[in-house]
Records
---
Amino acid sequence: MRVLAVDTRRREELVDVTERVREAVRASGVAEGACLVYSPHTTCAVTVNEGWDPAVTADAVTYLADAVPRTGSYAHAEGNSDAHIKTMLVGSSVTLPVSGGDLRLGRWQAVFLCEFDGPRHRELWVTVG
Amino acid sequence: MRVLAVDTRRREELVDVTERVREAVRASGVAEGACLVYSPHTTCAVTVNEGWDPAVTADAVTYLADAVPRTGSYAHAEGNSDAHIKTMLVGSSVTLPVSGGDLRLGRWQAVFLCEFDGPRHRELWVTVG
Amino acid sequence: MRVLAVDTRRREELVDVTERVREAVRASGVAEGACLVYSPHTTCAVTVNEGWDPAVTADAVTYLADAVPRTGSYAHAEGNSDAHIKTMLVGSSVTLPVSGGDLRLGRWQAVFLCEFDGPRHRELWVTVG
């Protein structure tokens, strides 16, 4: 298991980690299989989507901020219930194909750490097998 | 593949199954890899999130009940379309890291069966490899 | 890795690909493990849910069209930000149990390609291991 450290800079943002995941896959020596990119946090998710136009991830951040308001009649007293809920909706991990010793993504796909309660020091745990 | 039986007690609730998943991982004898926790149901999901403060999962249940209303102009006649949709949003499984022969979760993370149409007898299927 | 080609027919629809995934699992020769069904696209997801009553997937399509409107104050200029966001919410892949050399699903479960910006030629990448 390899640990990728990511320092986020805003409360909510998607950070492209594709090249670092790719390096971890290549370093693993696994030729065929799958790669688990796992967030060990409860207010930070992982997703795969378009990496070319940053407007796509900006739209996702805006949409989620509207759909899951930061303030509301939440029971959890830390003021970040929205971040927990967004993490459940987007998901705490992605599993990606590995073939020919390399990460296999679609042409427009990138891997993103989804920060919903930053800025913070975050980790992603990468398992290839 | 190991089967965990869970009897839920409400229509909607998140049930912490972390220790049972951990036991399945340890019993598998797998040292390094990943663990798939899979719901074979269509109105019951699986997620990973905070296990310390029960207000977090209570907020998630409340949020989802508001976001996906139980009654509406649904075509499916069984009265549980909301539960099917919630299951698609949260997801039917999680994949978790296994290292050193043990389940590896973040400090605040727990694994939850998400009941959206209970109370029912449910199963989770755990595969370690 | 096996590639399943799917031609979708509407802008938004869920297409049952269960039997094709099952064939890929059987052809792999893997007896025990898991199967990754991966969408290499950014406006097309994968889910598992009820395959018996088509009203269930119809309700999901209708719900998502309401929850993530096609038009809005989106920054991405291609007019399909809704499709990118829906893909993040539903997820780009599912991981399914394999046991006894066969795909193991719950009684009512089917595997669906979720088209959110069709009609298009799509692929699913299936990895069994």
---
Amino acid sequence: MKNDRILRALKREKTDTTPIWLMRQAGRSLPRYREKRADREMLAILRDPPAAAEITALPLEYFPVDAAVLYNDLVTPFFGAGINVRMEVGIGPVVDNPIEAPADIDRLTPFDPNLTLAWSMEQIKLLVQRIDVPVLGFIGAPFTLCSYLIRGSRTRHQEEIKRFIWQHPEAWHRLAEFWVEHLAAFGIAQFEAGAGAVQVFDSWAGSLGLEDYERYVLPHNEKLIRTMQDAGVPVINFYTGNPALLPLVSAAGGDCISVDWRLPIDAAWDLVGERAIQGNLDPTVLLAGRDVTLAKAKDILDRVEGRPGHIFNLGHGLLPGTDHNVIKALVDFVHEYEAEKAGA
Amino acid sequence: MKNDRILRALKREKTDTTPIWLMRQAGRSLPRYREKRADREMLAILRDPPAAAEITALPLEYFPVDAAVLYNDLVTPFFGAGINVRMEVGIGPVVDNPIEAPADIDRLTPFDPNLTLAWSMEQIKLLVQRIDVPVLGFIGAPFTLCSYLIRGSRTRHQEEIKRFIWQHPEAWHRLAEFWVEHLAAFGIAQFEAGAGAVQVFDSWAGSLGLEDYERYVLPHNEKLIRTMQDAGVPVINFYTGNPALLPLVSAAGGDCISVDWRLPIDAAWDLVGERAIQGNLDPTVLLAGRDVTLAKAKDILDRVEGRPGHIFNLGHGLLPGTDHNVIKALVDFVHEYEAEKAGA
């Protein structure tokens, strides 16, 4: 690997320039993405490591990002547990036999990710041989993952997962523990296959208030992250949506906390404490074009002032319709800003 | 009017018990709602004041809430400005000739709400004669209202309104000023027709970070609220989604700030300062049934400790599928809690 900026930033070591990658960088924003997918089902491609690896590496043909994030989906661990899942247009992942009552949890079958999800690790092994930047693996956190499992598909306000948790708190803890164990094993397997770090996505935890996060999410995320770190995995802890949760999210751990745009990055970093920080740019900014994007990026970089441990990213995934030329301009700007500022 | 608890709470005067009303209380949760609508288009009913007034008053037949909130829609002021709007299933309000570029703003026609939106005021006049609780009027704030106007329908991430604001900041301020003037006039007209207070809905402002809120939303909301207050209107300032905005939302003014569940109500009240407070219960809680709902309501009431100026409400509107028996249990619990606690 020639470019280890991201791995150094995760340790808060100084880097020659600010590292950047973008959530959902391997997707619809890239003209050749459709071609590579060739209209195959996403879930079929994931089980075809050479095809999936080509998509993971595709962004590097467009812009010099400092990491390649695995082309995968949060819900693929469901297959390991014996749950079938389909991608439905306009809905997202839909589970065939959802969990509706506590007894349904007993249907989940324990699994070894290295056996039942081997295609993910094979993809990583192919990529590590081929590309010059770290491969980032990822897993969902129990709350976010189970928002797709309970009642079969995610609801707009997370009302089904919340209802299950409040009505059956003991069963929820049992369900979360099942997933913590298997997700930690999956994260460690990705790391052992060559991933440079693993990001934990708790995309929907921001719909919770402080007490519910502390009681139903924090202990599980903390155990999940600690188990991976104990195995040597650098962990990025991602969430979005409720800045008031940031101290609790940070308490759950991770080498790096990934934050959204609802707080300025300097204020967020004060709450994150002595860790690396990632994120902050609103993905809708890129839809407003190059000039708006670079002005917002400049504001973030000026607030960070070159402090080691900053990984430039969005606060959530790239939106459909984002122009890859704007992404390219952003990546170049972030890489060149500190040097230009020093020279100016 | 026999029951003025809400109006007293807005002035932070002591009340005999905690007042409560619920956003979207006049809707699908009520079995007789469908019957009253008789499958007519919502927008047609609004222009039929006796029919609309029956729906506004309907919740009082089910549970003794302390206010009736006008059956109306945020987007009806569009009709005043010469913009046609339709309700589309699964999408919401869709505008026929949306604003896409700065020049489109000139198409908006100035209007007098007392003439072109007279049906709203007629509904209020009918209600005031008939019911024993205050009628609450409402308006949208410019950001939220225009998220339905720019590009024709609200997008999930508010990406179109944000893009417009960032690309055309001067035009945005002109557009917002048009709406501030006309929305303030509409709010005042509702008050003069008999509404006891007017709620300003900035439902989607929580998708913004602090700088954007301060630059593009705060000055307009502040002027809108102040103009109504100068005319004697008690104002409730509602938003949801980003607790970090709360100090700025409070700076925009209002007799009362309506907050969601992402901060505990006591922490939120500290940020709101010397004003009344409303809201806080997550509407998804009611989907989890009576026991969960009353436990969460108890927590809110225990945090408030009977401090004057608390109006019990949800943090956002009631969700489809909420059981009206659970709503009834909540309303009774809130009314009886302080007396039962004192007696215990």
---
Amino acid sequence: MDRAVLLLVCPDAPGILADVATWVAQSGGSIVDAAQTSDIDHGLFIQRVEFDHTEDVEELRRSFRDLAVRWSMWWELQVPKEKARLSILVTKEAHCLYDLLGRCASGDLPAFVVSVISNRSDLEEAAGRFGVPFHHLPVDADDPDARLAQENEVNAVLEADQPDLVILARYMRVLTPQFTERWSERTINIHHSFLPAFIGANAYRQAWERGVKLIGATAHYVTSGLDEGPIITQDVARVAPGDTPVTMARRGRDLESLVLSTAVRAHLEHRVIAYSGRTVVFD
Amino acid sequence: MDRAVLLLVCPDAPGILADVATWVAQSGGSIVDAAQTSDIDHGLFIQRVEFDHTEDVEELRRSFRDLAVRWSMWWELQVPKEKARLSILVTKEAHCLYDLLGRCASGDLPAFVVSVISNRSDLEEAAGRFGVPFHHLPVDADDPDARLAQENEVNAVLEADQPDLVILARYMRVLTPQFTERWSERTINIHHSFLPAFIGANAYRQAWERGVKLIGATAHYVTSGLDEGPIITQDVARVAPGDTPVTMARRGRDLESLVLSTAVRAHLEHRVIAYSGRTVVFD
Amino acid sequence: MDRAVLLLVCPDAPGILADVATWVAQSGGSIVDAAQTSDIDHGLFIQRVEFDHTEDVEELRRSFRDLAVRWSMWWELQVPKEKARLSILVTKEAHCLYDLLGRCASGDLPAFVVSVISNRSDLEEAAGRFGVPFHHLPVDADDPDARLAQENEVNAVLEADQPDLVILARYMRVLTPQFTERWSERTINIHHSFLPAFIGANAYRQAWERGVKLIGATAHYVTSGLDEGPIITQDVARVAPGDTPVTMARRGRDLESLVLSTAVRAHLEHRVIAYSGRTVVFD
Amino acid sequence: MDRAVLLLVCPDAPGILADVATWVAQSGGSIVDAAQTSDIDHGLFIQRVEFDHTEDVEELRRSFRDLAVRWSMWWELQVPKEKARLSILVTKEAHCLYDLLGRCASGDLPAFVVSVISNRSDLEEAAGRFGVPFHHLPVDADDPDARLAQENEVNAVLEADQPDLVILARYMRVLTPQFTERWSERTINIHHSFLPAFIGANAYRQAWERGVKLIGATAHYVTSGLDEGPIITQDVARVAPGDTPVTMARRGRDLESLVLSTAVRAHLEHRVIAYSGRTVVFD
């Protein structure tokens, strides 16, 4: 039996769930996990169906098309990869990178890292420990032409590696809209705050100055707006009296690693549906 | 349109979801919320379907019967009450009682309290503030006959009031199997620990002595085994250095109130399916 | 023995802790709980000392003055009240009000409610259940003069009642700087978001539109800037797929009640030190 | 300036805090962080003082002795190591090992790993990636003599490596009292449940069968009683409907890694005081 994941969004109406489930059954499929919800504000039905089948996938896609047209669906039929390809962009902070490399090596994430790309050389050793090619692509942040040239080099590595997912694991350069569009819906960033609070750099200092009692981390798809893409995962941790921006950053590292890997797993398992600047993430 | 909730458990097999969803559609129903899961260990399919309809409920039940037999289902078709009837048993701690009375009065819980029953008189004033009849049924805990007699009086109040749900809100008397059986599947208890840790009395002292770093609370259906019924809701809170059994109990009260009211709401909204000593609670 | 709480903030330097602890010992005091921290950014030492003593409090204050001058301290010596006086401002949402009334009645909070003030009449019954005077002071929100007049009436009630703490328990009118200044450092507001995200009205709708995965609540001292006062307590809860602004508000109510009562307790126990737009809250 | 950490436990009495703080000031020390609490049940005062000084450490110890005798203190004066030595025992699960290796390599933990010891060979590659010696010491679990012999070999590696801390990172063999006594107060184990619930093997299956709604992890010092040593850190995570023992174990891995590394950090920073089978952990 093969595994497939159907994701769909369409205007809500009675009968869709019955139609989809009947289609799976008639295709000889056996549902492993199905979950659906609705967005009452936009009047949408949103569903994820994971099922086992013996059919050819293209045949399944063809056979689903009629039903999709009837209900005006946006839809995808995905085949989960045994091991997805990840490219990771970093600057100098090591915690998310080590966390992802370790999770791939131990089999915790169904993926392997095909490239680590950085504007600095600090993390070359980390990539090397896991036998992952490290691309050092330095850039003068004050020179717009240099930034564009470097981004083109980053892009060239990605084009060569064809990752299923690009991960910004504390990459401290802002990307152009051209880049984010090219890799849209498969680039995840980890931001070190509970978005939309504390956008941009120095989020822990901003948080400390406002005197918040919890710090957060947010993993989101990257769009052209800074820290504005659809949120996939968020979590928070308690601030202790006496915490400084430095100790908050220390506590925050654990949050960042965990929130990022949770979002990566959800994406790789095709549990995330992004629409209208939001996501639905099925457990 | 009327609202109904279908709950079902049956051996898992391809086609059930399609059959159920098709039945709803063919009955002229419109699904408001559907969720399903499986218990892989026992090979079970477990579903909750909330739907709007114009049919007579008995007619719906009749029409579902064939399908239920075909898939060997345990099932219920519930009609959510606008206001359910609650009877609350207490001893002397007021926090859960005030919390439930306030939630019913403010409309936060879709229920009203028909009786408060206690082996002590401490909480008579609390019930009185909300105009709820208070039944003081004292008992000598050391006299088995007296205990049985008092339990019969409790039972008589319940039989007269016919509550949809009986709540043990820090009621400190152990009930007989006859009683728990009579009110089974509609009696919820709040226990002041993360069960199965710290069964029985003095749970905070037990927790303090073991030196745990989190305290918990557990709401569960009452069965004949002490603190062994199916768990509905649990939550925990951090223990601070310097906490004593007394301060842990103080922190624990907030947990107890919240966990209990969350379980009560889930029950009243027909979101809980209990089977094999466990529950599935749909969000 | 009497109980006192010393709160202090001063420039950090070696020897302060020794001096303060020695002063307590020499005053015949016995420390019940002491906690201190530092704000490294501002170079400050911040301390709370709770102690038992047999001395006259004014005498204690006099004897501490020299030490306070020597270290350039801001300081207070508080005597915890057995029962503090609370005035609660509300509009129409009942959950925080019932929660506070219940906690005062059960003895969970060391306080009693002396007045409930509202621009609407919805919650008159709630106050009445607990025998608390209810002041209905309606206002035409579009008429600046009427708003000022109503605020003066609110102020008159407070001046008459002399509460130790004013609580804005979902009071939906913006207060003038004159008012907030008059009651500064003893007015706590509950805001229905994780501040500084989602300032102002409709916080749950804002949160839903941004697609956050956690909702929050924030209790803070009221200052003239909208939702900008020093944060005392914050907490968050998970958003489920399918949540709408309405269901998020439902989940949020539990957060609001709990966060507010936690902040009120911390304030009444003199555990909060506010300085530079921030607070330190000792456990 | 050098850094030192003073830990102490003694019968509670007025004047101790003053004496200790005065001693630090008179020794020319500057307090960086001080925290104290009391165990009211046992009548104990418990304190941690971190301070900078220019004195010789042995001289400090000598000068503290009088004070310690006066108040009948158990006490230690520790000098935090820039990099502590860790030996890690594992069996086959990789997540905690990779997490610890990554944290040491990135500088997140102030430590380096001197040896990885295992009864299986599965994790040799993981140790190798970080250049850490791997000791494969297989054992026939059914042969008591073989178990003793293998434990002696483990012990020999440790005696040679002289670690500051021994970490049982999912090591699946029970150790003898001789071993636990030899390395007592410097051996930390991670247990995959919220202790004292679900002691021993198969904790996730036990948890699943009981139907708990949260899973936990517990890091504790190892003593001769199985899973009974003083608890250092605990945390929990939500169980989703549909979780199985396998998916609970998957979620649990994140908890285990985080709880273990948090306990290791607290130990290395001398923030843990163990006494009477319990610990106090200062933030």
